[in-house]
Automatic annotation (TrEMBL):
Residues 130-133 are annotated as: G4. It is a peripheral membrane protein. InterPro entries: G_ERA_dom, GTP-bd, GTPase_Era-like, KH_dom-like_a/b, KH_dom_type_2, KH_sf_prok-type, P-loop_NTPase, Small_GTP-bd. It comes from Streptomyces halobius. Keywords: Cell membrane, Cytoplasm, GTP-binding, Membrane, Nucleotide-binding, Ribosome biogenesis, RNA-binding, rRNA-binding. This is GTPase Era. Belongs to the TRAFAC class TrmE-Era-EngA-EngB-Septin-like GTPase superfamily. Era GTPase family. It is found in: Cytoplasm; Cell membrane. Monomer. PROSITE patterns: G_ERA (PS51713), KH_TYPE_2 (PS50823).
Amino acid sequence: MSVRTDSPAPHRAGFACFVGRPNAGKSTLTNALVGTKVAITSTRPQTTRHTVRGIVHRPEAQLVLVDTPGLHKPRTLLGERLNDVVRTTWAEVDVIGFCLPADQKIGPGDRYIATELAGIKKTPKVAIVTKTDLVDSKTLAAQLIAIDRLGKELGIEWAEIIPVSAVAAEVAEEELGGGTSGKGAGGREAGQVSLLADLLVPLLPESPALYPEGDLTDEPEQVMVAELIREAALEGVRDELPHSIAVVVEEMLPREDRPADKPLVDIHANVYIERPSQKGIVIGPKGKRLKEVGVKSRKHIEALLGTPVFLDLHVKVAKDWQRDPKQLRRLGF
Ligand SMILES: Nc1nc2c(ncn2[C@@H]2O[C@H](COP(=O)(O)OP(=O)(O)OP(=O)(O)O)[C@@H](O)[C@H]2O)c(=O)[nH]1
């Protein structure tokens, strides 16, 4: 199927997803490519539960990024659901970027994912070595060779093997301006994120743009708001409540009696925990922690929405929600 146009390079558009073990840098890469924060990053694994899309707009192409949760050996019903989400996503996208951190040897977690990837024949796969700023060039070279070998061993033909650093890109992108690739010039990291987009675009099908320009994400705002609250609620208590917190925004409405130049959005959200004993941890002595969670997440939400926000948080117990299909559905999984 091809679309005829007068311009030498046809417009391309399609979906890409980044896969990789938890903490591989998938969300960070998505954010760096899109140029704004759309997915939730964290130093701890498994924070990306919802599929968050970022959109890279270019004159000749549109790249829609689908950010999936990490694939891992399922232990709970939630784990199984997450893996299903990942596989469904893989089958639907136009290109898969397999993220492998430069600072860690290829391990069983990577092999598990690579073996699954080998089973998806049709979709082009790009191996992306992330966090290259953390290693020297010798380590990086060894990683590139190891990835090449892994592909040969499992019968995966990498469309490309690309080293990137999302961290360095934050600084480098500003200097890049007019879309040069920034290759060479001694700066190993400069423009690598933009170069990654250059390499992904030709793998997309010929197609007009799929989304109107200016859309950075099509994730419903309420889900993103919930993620921001969950991120704040988890801070500092991850060891006590590893994966026990879910957040649902019950209501998000502009306050009615406000003048047009002074809008305010009312947000009512519930923070769900699994057991009554966890309530105290989330709320803290005299409600101090919950207040901090509110203050912190409100700042992020206001930045996201661009308006002042009144945030009302309630902590509720949804008993063993990770194991209960009905609760999972209610909580958006
Ligand atoms: N130094 C450095 N750190 C990075 C880079 N990319 C990501 N990180 C860090 O690595 C950690 C994990 O990054 P994420 O983007 O959350 O990883 P993820 O693969 O989305 O993780 P999950 O959501 O758990 O699957 C975070 O602390 C990031 O700041 C990079 O290019 N360089």
